[in-house]
User: Fold these one by one.
Assistant:
Number 1:
Amino acid sequence: MAELKYVGRDVQRNDIVEKASGRIKYMGDRMQGGAAHARLILSPIARGRVVSFDASEAERMPGVLRVFSPKDDPGKRFNSALFLPDQTDLQDHPVFTDKPLFVGDILGAVLAKDEETARAAAAAVKIGFEEEAPLLDMEQAALPQTPSFREGMPQVVEGKIAYGEESLPGDAIILESVVRTQKIHHGAMENHICEARMEYGGVLLVETPCQMAFTVRYVLADLFGIPFNKVRVVKTPVGGAFGGKQEVGIEPHCALMALKTGLPVRLALDRTQTILATRTRAASVGRILIAADREGNLLRREMDVIVDAGAYATGTQRVMMAMGKKTSRLYRIPSQSFRGRTVFTNTTPAGACRGYGSPQIHAITEIAMDLLARKLLLDPAEFRLKNLVHPWDTDPAGGPALGNARIRDCLVRGMEVFRWNERRVIPSGTGRFRRGVGLACCTHGNGYFGSPYPDFMSMAMRFCEDGTVLVNAGLQELGNGTLTTIGQIVAEVLDLPPERVEVSESDTSTTPFDVGCVASRVTYVCGSCALELAEKLKSRFLGQCARVLAVDAHRLSLKNGNVVDSEEGGRRSYGGMVCRIAKELREEAGEYLHYKPEANPASYGVHFAETLTDTLTGTVEVTDYLAVHDVGRAINPRLLRGQIYGGVQMGVGMALSEELVYDSKGRPKSASLSRYTMINAPSMPKVGVLLVEEGEPGGPFGGKSIGEICTVPVAPAIANAVNASLGTMMTELPFTPERILAALSARRETNAR
Amino acid sequence: MRVDTPSNVSELRDVLRSAVAVPRKCSLLAGGTDLLVHLRASPDLSPDLIDLSGVKELKNIEIHRDHMEIGACATFSQIEGHPLVQERFSALARAASLVGSPQIRNLGTIGGNLANASPAADSLPPLCALEASLLIENAEGAQSTLSPAQVASAPGKDSLHADQYIRAVLLPLRENLLSFFVKTGSRKAVAISKLSLALALSFEPGHVRLFAGSLGTSPIRMEAAEAVLDRRDWTEANHTAFLDALSGAVERAIPGRASLPFKRLAVRGLGDDLWTAAKEAISRG
């Protein structure tokens, strides 16, 4: 391949100046006015019934426009993840409920002329409840005798994936364990916000910082019975999403208020409301059995996983199935069974969160793998090397082929750079502080291909009269650099500077359809669409130029913004040619492409962590870190590294400190950022990044996903380091000081016996 | 909502007098890092505010013959960076440096921290260890003193009258005094204390004050551990005795509390830090 000009280079991101200077206008930066301000009224109880709703005091307050109560609920139930009618996820979600199912369930809202009035009025609404005892424990929720607290809805939704012989050889070494992962808040800097208004022609316009504009359209049109082409969803700048803005969140509430009043409505949540009333990473409990022979060759794995959906179905059943689907794509295992049960509890609903179940299932399997390695007296890295998949392996459970799966390269090269062999055998010490190293491997996907969800997109692309290029696509920039990398791909093919390529974001009325910025599909699927379309446009443009210039198209090529004639030697600017094509051919230099991926290879990663644990206070410091990823090809290495740094930061939180906990009445104990501990800069290790770039067929210039997978192996890598350094077998995340000290006490007692 | 912005103590007294005379519900606004968060979360509370940030007498840190006077509105940044605080009252300087984030420390004040009456207030244990007293003044200018441990009557509730305010923190100057502060939270920085210890001791035996924070409304004095430390016996056996005394004090302070199993162990880690620091400082001479 000829040397690339823009792909593989650290092209500056398109929005760097606006973001670094603070000039970008997130929705929350809009001045007050121009819209009525809404404030949600959330349930303070975890389960029960509204018996009285007295808004008289609120309604008397000057500036209050309207109070919405459970009586304003449209009656129809929705599911916030659903985007086609064949999808069978339970539709159980009301807009305003009179039977709250968790602290934070949305009962109503106040609409007022400004935000302060809305807040004060919402606090003045007096609501009487009849309380019932909440169901909070997910294992109890999974018991067959536990009744459903959701009228007419099942309490457990099950799914299974299995392949191979069920039997086990008698001499197999078996490890059984139970690993627990916690409920997590996404922690995006931007809280949830949305604006809805009626536009000319009876069009409902909804502006929202979302990840799937067309899903928002689907849910709103379906819920309110509006023709789809009369619902216009426009994606606004996103201040962090991480899956928390993937499902439809507060858009139905905002739209309902706009529809009922005819007023433009802005609905903004504060941090506590975002923590309580939106979505979370699903907590899980995974029972796992791994069998291997004495040499460490895996024979069979059995997993029985309970996944906590919280109070509503949302997309958690999909998350649970996604967990199962990852388990046959990392190691060669002759036989395996996965049973997942999605259960309901009176807690904030779960849903998509960076990794979509991958961090949970990898925590379960990778912590257990280390415990088995210990039992086998094997180096955890050597044990994995014996079993990891090879490039071009198939998925024994029937999923798409793994593609150029370079996990083995990741592990081998990472071991060398991290000096694994040397560091692993250093004794952890006998004093107060214990040092240890750990690693974890992982896999993640590249889109929806091979799943029940159709993966496809369309784009339009055209040259403008000045030679700039406009890419009309339903993309969603989430801060991860989507628009920049798509621009680089287009710039590479059309040979012009990336800053001369403008890439649009989703507007359901003006951009072609795209599924959304989900499933780690953007580089592999959307990037490939952009690449193929750019090539199609190039060919059309060269053909048009040839007709205008009356020469053979083979003589022409695109070079740095100019059309070059190899025989005549002339150079003509793209813009000039676009104008001549318009005038002389009466044609646009534009193309359209319907794209569907025909593969869904796996991305891979190995993370190495060194931890230092204070055995007296129980605090864990991550003192060194290396992330190794099989990315096929880095389109923009600097942006890619940025993804990894952020993924590690989220993962350290999952490993050590982040956890949504509830008291016995279901009231959250960590509903603010002072009580919900995310990892900040002083607690971050220096993160080394090593990329394996062996090229992935089907991906743009060989590229594949990074955004989600980089947070997947963090928690188990750190957990394994801590367990190795302490000689413990901790399996409950996060490893808080309390849990560390409890584990050390338990170990001391065992040793004393 | 009414906001008064007195620019000196005399204006502040006038404002307080008129507020008490009406009477109306008033809150004193110092740095606002807790109060404003609280008010925003509770829109039903809408007290009038008296903004202390302009009262110039409250911001000073001054050294007198036998004591240091830290104005109630001195910020944690000021305290953390003050050379004399660092030199004479290093436990307080250290505690100030561990409060919140730099942004919080630039606004948050020592008086506000005390009046906010949080059991996790980082300034309280060192003030107790350093024998500080609070200078309280009322609208008429009458002064009284209060021990730091008496400010909080319950978590989140201060014991001051509506016409009173904290004027300053007074710290007696002792010769040859060493002091240390350690805490543990859920992360290295910007962490609410789960447990903290403040120690003040003289070079020569006879004076040791050791207080634990985040165990109750006010800091708890660890007398048994003080006695062990005052032996100035740096052997391993005495080290263990010191840590055992700390664990014992925690067990007595919070019996039956869910956090007891953690805190009775974690206090040993903080105790070990203090032990090492004190031992090194004293043997250095």
Note: Chain B touches chain A at residues 41-44, 46, 184, 186-192, 194, 259, 261-262, 265-266, 268-270, 272 (CB under 8 Å).
Number 2:
Amino acid sequence: MHVVMKMSDNRDLKRIEAKLFSSYFQDGAWDVMIGIMMVTMALRTFIDHWTVSFLALGGVIYVFIIRKYLTVKRLGYARFSSSRKKKRVTMFLIILAANIVTLCLLIASLLGADPSFALRTTVIAALVISTFSIVAYYMDYWRFFIWGIFLTGSILVTEMFGLGPGSMVSMTMGACITIVGLYFLYIFIKKYPSSGGDRD
Amino acid sequence: MKNVSRNAVNWSVDDIDRMVHEPARYMILSILYVLDTGDFLFIQTQTALTKGNLSSHISKLEEAGYVKVVKEFIGKRPHTMIRITKTGKKAFEEYRGTMSRIIGR
């Protein structure tokens, strides 16, 4: 199906807004970014050099380039209403709170507090899955929820079986997410051919 | 005609805003209603209307004062940005209200 809307659609305006907003995620750019980040995190285990961390930046640069030079040129440009901005602020505040909890855990462990294995694993898993779920909900980007489960799974494997197996799982899942993202990019390019720079 | 319609089904064809009633224009207004603003290409990709068809409907909506078309530059590229006006929003809401009333929802 080429269009987001059809004449016969039930005109639920909120649903239309969500569809329009999520149309920007059809390019798979964020999927590739998450995939690259997971692979990079895992690579850090095997290649212990700080420069590897910079590979993660590749994912962010990829999103920037794809959005600027491909997505907007093919899909068009839209500014969303204030309700969408409120959603973004709420999402930002919730993620900030989750990060503060993570930071507290880190500080506590640096100060010598050693939480039990079960508690640490549960808290980390809950933080990751809740953060991804919140982003998925507020951004109307439901693949993010699945990627959250993938990341949580790799964290649990790391906690239970150690860094080696955990990193292997993380790399595999990251690679899968990247491939899915690239597949979505392929579909996007086919679905929205270039307008050849003629926007009007 | 008007009285006959009103007596029989309790609404008149004149109650319906034909500018909004046309399916393509209704689709365009639905999109613009939930956006702050969108460019021509975005509306086109979302409606799958041809360029000429979309342009024609946008012109009609602009003449009716339902949308405002602004040419602006984003970076170095010209964009035809389209925004729904207050009149357009009101007309769209009234149309939805009328249709809901007619079909008894």
Note: The longest strand of chain A covers residues 78-80.
